């Protein structure tokens, strides 16, 4: 959700498309019935707070044999 730049009410995303690996273009519509503005916004990754380290691959459970209880 974004704030409508025209009236300040909530605006919801109606559709979107990936522009690049870190940017998405969103088509938004104001939810205020007296405004109804539609506008385009871009959502972009600007920085990471944390990144995963190298992850070791493990086999899924139950592949090597059946479980016995």
UniProtKB/TrEMBL annotation:
Source organism (scientific name): Proteus myxofaciens ATCC 19692
Zinc finger Ogr/Delta-type domain ranges (all copies): 4-49
Protein name, entry field: Phage Ogr family protein
Pfam family, one: Ogr_Delta
